[in-house]
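User: New here, any thoughts?
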Amino acid sequence: MGELVSAGNKGKGVRSDCFVSLELTSGGGIQLELDSKVAVMYGNDIRKEVHTILDHAGIRDARITLEDSGALPLVIAARLEAAIRKAFPSDNEYLIPMLDENRYETPRERNRFTRLYLPGNTPSLMINAGIHHPDGIILDLEDAVAPDKKDEARYLVRNALRGIDLYGAERMVRINQGERGLADLDFVVPHQVNLILIPKCEQPEQIHAVNNRIREIRKSRKLNNPIWLMPIVESALGVINAYPIASAAENIVALAIGLEDYTADLGTRRTTEGSESFFARSMIVNAARAAGIQPIDSVFSDVADMEGLHDTVLRSKAMGFDGMGCIHPRQIQVILDAFAPSVEEIEKAKKIVVAFHEAEAKGLGVVALGSKMIDPPVVKRALHTIRLAVQLNKLEENWKESYV
């Protein structure tokens, strides 16, 4: 008789998930006990899927209990495979089909105003996340997953990357720290991930280790899709090393800060006004701009305080950040609206762009708007505002055709 192993979640409040118990036996074939809310309609399909996965793993004799709370087939497959690997270690993956909708790459330069964190072991939060239209969706294998659930969460995140339509959001995964994080990469790199977040980054060597492992996986799998990196700085040492981290590799597109861990490292309390983190956030912005990448602010943890969130985003934008993290879908629109160009900013940008083009058409070397001279950085910033306004439908498309 083998060891009894399990994977998944069960109990009150658990939705769209399942709990699998598996014990290898010395005979008797496959003995499956199914407890499902949808057994009448889908019981035969669930049983067929279980037998297919067991057959793929080469298991002929086992006792299995599956407690289902409305899990999708991709979730059942992830839970069963995770249990199988605990009992029967093997590199023989059971891969669900990749959705055609998930075969997309994301450009280096794209809006990353909002990125929505989703716990990597909670399928109910993943299934419809794309309908909220954040710029990025983070399947989190790190802090949002309990230590004893991290291994099985990998299978769920891998299947989510393959089988859940995220509606064009940048497909992100936050891996764990150190060797566990490098092992996480085997479950995400081959499955059309767009961006990997590296937590608690303190040294450029952490970036190099991740990239070395990505190169190994891509070479063995013959992959060529770009994979971007976003290091997260979460300590005093990380803040001091912000520029070396930001400039450590060409595929780094953004540098983020995590203020919960940072303030804990300082031994202080995080406040809404943020005076205790002003230095760190300024360092992140300056390091990112110096490295030519996007600075991304921390999450706002009070999901009920929309006014506080709005004020925080305005301060973040004023400091030079290009986006923030979200821990609840209701935060997405507030963050997007605050980071988007205001009416006043758009009107000022239009005047600057018009003045620049009129001066250029007249062959003038000096551009002026009223009594103020306009230098190239001001024009560049105005053009960026116009681009954003067009993308966010705050300005008519012909502005893009005429000036941008």
